[in-house]
């Protein structure tokens, strides 16, 4: 939590001003009992109305001054608390953007959402209360005790006996509740996770009639949270009755002692009232202090949780002497003849996800040349997405070597690399705003002509033109006001707006009908200045590719044209047959032949 205090820079003066004005307010409050005592001792017995009026006016002025000090302190504390947490929130959001997929997968989206929302609110509340009350409450307690000694040292001994006992009770309850509040936050993470999962997958749950099962799971999680909150609430609830009981006992002793001293003529009635007022002030402030400490401990716990995210070092970063992508020397042509070197080169590449028991990809070796239209196919879980996500370095390889544009992918500046390599993920993601705003995420300087050209290539121009607002048509959060196919075409168009030289479409046409997908494939083939990698689970979508990479269980089992793979790759032949394509009747005879020789021959012959 201490490391987060660096975000207080620039607001330290205001942070000092808030408790300072609270200090002035406390002075006003401590002087009032003495004024009341003077009215009781001097004004009322002598029926001195002028004296009483003057003292009442003085109390009113003190009250107005105290209110002004309190409002000013509240302004400064709120200003500092909001600005402080705002800076932390922005810094945390920025830091999350630097984390690789590995860290995000490990931490979990639910935890990150809780850190940015609930934990931040607790920190803001803790800072606000700290600036307003942390100095005020101890000063009132200490000041009231000093004023009690000024009034009557002997009667003030009750204060000396009471304060340590109250402190023991308060800190004992505090020490018990601190770990309990941490457990409450952990349970809250689980509830938020269940809620987010249900909201994200509501259609699936309804489709498979799993609402009741999810309700039961959610009830279980909320019951656990409720149990933890009841436990910590029960312990915290002991604070007020215990403190009030102790203070009332002290008040009884004070009144009894004061009455005896008044009867003996040692103490005045006004002095007893003043002592009673100071005792009440101590009670209120100690209760405030106890609640403040509990809030501070919660804020510190939340701050430590936020700090733990800051302490996570991104595993994928630009190296110190990062190089920019330089495409000089690469020739993008339809026939690829005369290409000097592959644009992407996998050499014995392996990938193991964090905390995984086995490798996702094993010993992948292949080359992709400038201007090629390459398909990637395989069954579910074969590693298609994992393979293409290595190219823009969303994950780091765990074995082998991967070169892009002639250099190891780990040597590049990440921004430069990801401007040159654009990927359209499996899930179509649109942001709330307009179609124009979503397309210009890829290229803020794109003109309307470029946007329409990208929409035409992505087969999205037709339905966009039908919208009254055209490019300025609104887009709901997640693109929920568009169909699945429309969302996919808009995300593909967004990739086409860029100047990237490598385009990766990761099964991003799965929601398109056959005719639309065919138009899209023709548009991809017409991009002579780009290398296109098209991932699909349908063999029919890849028949026109220059080459097709076939994956099974994380291994490359086929590399060649459609016709060659039908003859040499049993896995591809299976997928093709399942896709409804015609498989040669004599494929079974050649299907058992080793794949290595034909694959090498294909690669060597093509080059």
Q: How would the blueprint of this fold be written?
A:
Layout: H1 12-43, H2 49-98, H3 101-107, H4 109-133, H5 136-151, H6 157-200, H7 202-207, H8 211-237, H9 239-263, H10 269-310, E1 344-351, E2 361-368, E3 373-378, H11 384-389, E4 399-404, E5 407-408, H12 414-420, E6 421-424, E7 433-434, H13 435-439, H14 448-457, H15 461-465, E8 474-475, H16 484-496, E9 502-506, H17 514-525, E10 531-535, E11 547-552, E12 555-560, H18 562-568, H19 570-578, H20 587-591, H21 596-606
Parallel strand pairs: 3-10, 3-11, 6-9, 9-10
Antiparallel strand pairs: 1-2, 1-4, 4-5, 7-8, 11-12
Helix pairs in contact: 1-2, 1-5, 1-10, 2-4, 4-6, 4-10, 5-6, 5-10, 6-8, 6-9, 6-10, 9-10, 14-16, 18-19
3D structure, described in words:
- It is a single chain.
- The chain folds into two domains: 7-193 and 228-310, ABC transporter transmembrane region fold; 344-606, Rossmann fold, CATH 3.40.50.
- It has 21 helices and twelve strands.
- The chain has helices at 12-43, 49-98, 101-107, 109-133, 136-151, 157-200, 202-207, 211-237, 239-263, 269-310, 384-389, 414-420, 435-439, 448-457, 461-465, 484-496, 514-525, 562-568, 570-578, 587-591, 596-606; strands at 344-351, 361-368, 373-378, 399-404, 407-408, 421-424, 433-434, 474-475, 502-506, 531-535, 547-552, 555-560.
- The strands form three sheets. It has a six-stranded mixed sheet with strand order 6-9-10-3-11-12. A four-stranded antiparallel sheet has the order 2-1-4-5, with no helix packed on it.
- α18 crosses α19 (570-578).
- The chain is elongated.
- The protein starts with 11 loop residues before the first helix and ends with a helix.
- Residues 332-336 and 588-607 have low confidence and may be disordered.
């Amino acid at each position: 939590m201490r490391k987060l205090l660096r975000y207080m820079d620039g607001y330290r003066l205001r942070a000092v001003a808030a408790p300072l004005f609270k200090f002035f307010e406390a002075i006003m409050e401590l002087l009032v009992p003495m004024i009341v005592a003077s009215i009781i001792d001097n004004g009322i017995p002598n029926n001195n109305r002028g004296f009483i009026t003057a003292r009442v006016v003085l109390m009113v002025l003190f009250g107005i001054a105290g209110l002004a000090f309190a409002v000013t302190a509240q302004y400064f504390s709120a200003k500092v608390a909001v600005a402080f947490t705002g800076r932390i929130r922005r810094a945390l959001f920025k830091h999350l953007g630097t984390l690789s997929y590995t860290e995000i997968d490990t931490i979990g989206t639910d935890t990150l959402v809780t850190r940015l929302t609930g934990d931040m609110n607790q920190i803001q509340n803790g800072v606000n209360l700290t600036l307003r009350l942390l100095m005020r409450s101890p000063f009132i307690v200490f000041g009231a005790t000093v004023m009690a000694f000024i009034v009557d040292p002997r009667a003030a001994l009750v204060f000396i006996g009471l304060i340590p006992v109250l402190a023991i009770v308060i800190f004992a309850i505090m020490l018990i509740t601190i770990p309990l509040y941490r457990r409450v936050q952990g349970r809250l993470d689980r509830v938020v996770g269940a809620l987010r999962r249900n909201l994200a997958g509501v259609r699936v749950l309804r489709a498979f009639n799993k609402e009741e099962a999810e309700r039961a799971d959610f009830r279980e999680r909320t019951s656990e949270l409720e149990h933890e909150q009841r436990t910590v609430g029960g312990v915290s609830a002991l604070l007020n009755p215990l403190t009030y009981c102790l203070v009332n006992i002290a008040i009884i002793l004070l009144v009894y002692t004061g009455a005896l001293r008044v009867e003996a003529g040692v103490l005045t009635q006004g002095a007893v009232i003043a002592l009673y007022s100071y005792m009440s002030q101590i009670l209120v402030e100690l209760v405030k202090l106890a609640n403040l400490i509990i809030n501070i401990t919660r804020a510190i716990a939340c701050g430590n949780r936020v700090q733990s995210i800051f302490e996570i070092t991104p595993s994928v970063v630009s190296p110190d002497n990062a190089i920019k992508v330089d495409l000089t020397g690469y020739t993008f042509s339809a026939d690829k003849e005369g290409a000097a070197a592959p644009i992407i080169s996998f050499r014995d590449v392996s990938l193991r996800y964090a905390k995984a028991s086995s490798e996702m990809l094993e010993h992948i070796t292949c080359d992709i040349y400038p201007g090629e239209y390459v398909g990637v196919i395989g069954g579910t879980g074969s590693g298609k997405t994992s393979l293409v996500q290595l190219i823009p370095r969303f994950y780091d390889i765990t074995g082998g070597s991967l070169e892009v544009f002639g250099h190891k992918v780990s040597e590049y500046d990440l921004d430069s690399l990801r401007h040159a390599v654009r990927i359209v993920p499996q899930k179509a993601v649109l942001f709330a705003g307009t179609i124009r705003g979503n397309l210009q995420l890829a290229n803020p300087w794109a003109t309307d002509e470029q946007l329409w050209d990208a929409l035409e290539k992505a087969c999205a121009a037709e339905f966009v033109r039908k919208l009254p607002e055209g490019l300025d048509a609104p887009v709901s959060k997640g693109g929920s006001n568009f169909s699945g196919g429309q969302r996919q075409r808009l995300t593909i168009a967004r990739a086409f707006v860029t100047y990237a030289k490598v385009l990766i479409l990761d099964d991003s046409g799965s929601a398109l009908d056959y005719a639309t997908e065919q138009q899209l494939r023709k548009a991809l083939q017409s991009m002579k200045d780009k290398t296109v990698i098209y991932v699909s689970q349908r063999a029919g979508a890849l028949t026109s590719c220059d080459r097709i990479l076939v994956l099974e269980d994380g291994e490359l089992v086929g590399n060649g044209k459609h016709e060659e793979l039908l003859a040499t790759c049993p896995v591809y032949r299976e997928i093709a047959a399942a896709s409804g394509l015609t498989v040669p009747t004599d494929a079974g005879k050649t299907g058992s032949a080793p794949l290595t020789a034909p694959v090498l021959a294909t690669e060597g012959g093509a080059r």
